[in-house]
Amino acid sequence: MNELARMTSPEAAEALKAAKVALLPIGAHEQHGRHLTLDTDYAIADAFARRLAADLGRDAVLCPGLPYGLSEHHLAFPGTLTLRLDTLLGVLRDVAESLATTGITRVVVVNGHGGNMDAVRLAARGLLRDHGVVMAHLMWATLAADTIAELVGSERYGHACEGETSVGMVLAPRIVRHDRIGPPDPQLPVLPHAAPPTPRVDLPLAYDRLSAGGALGDARLASPELGEKIVATAYGRALEFARAFAAEPAGVA
Q: What is the pLDDT, as a whole number, of residue 253?
């Protein structure tokens, strides 16, 4: 695995010369109910990115990740730390522009937090227009959305639910506090068509408006078996895309 943070500059020069893409894991530092640690989103993204780096070999370099994201909607719960939109956009642009000076113009953002998705999309559009840098964006929950919808039974899910807890059991077991998994939090009323997991109306909602304890779904239904099924779908699709992305000729957007 070509992990930039653990290389010297001459070693990095060799790795970057051979690589076709850079992998950048990003997550968040925010509440995940009673049973998942605050770094859940980053821990999952980092583990996912490391798998990709290992399987892509010389075609990829793994960049140091970003453990913060856009988490203002979780600030009612202690421990949450958030960036502002402009801050995250700036970091994404700056890292990508730095990589471009070494000849790497293809970046795969491996994201673990849904709240970052709009920012990554905006950053990618500007980078392509202004610098010719192609930034792709992968998130396990999006990659495996069909599998999750088929296997997760809760009406609301997507945050500290049985799906995310199961994925944590597989990719980052230390984040799961099994002894703190209990009955689901009371779900609070939301305007029609605006509730997760697939709202048809785009309405910004703080998590204390969605759930009394900050979690969705029923984590008691989580299991490594469920996690393996979700990860298998998400990772298989991610690796298929990343290999094709790395194989594209330079200059193809």
A: 60
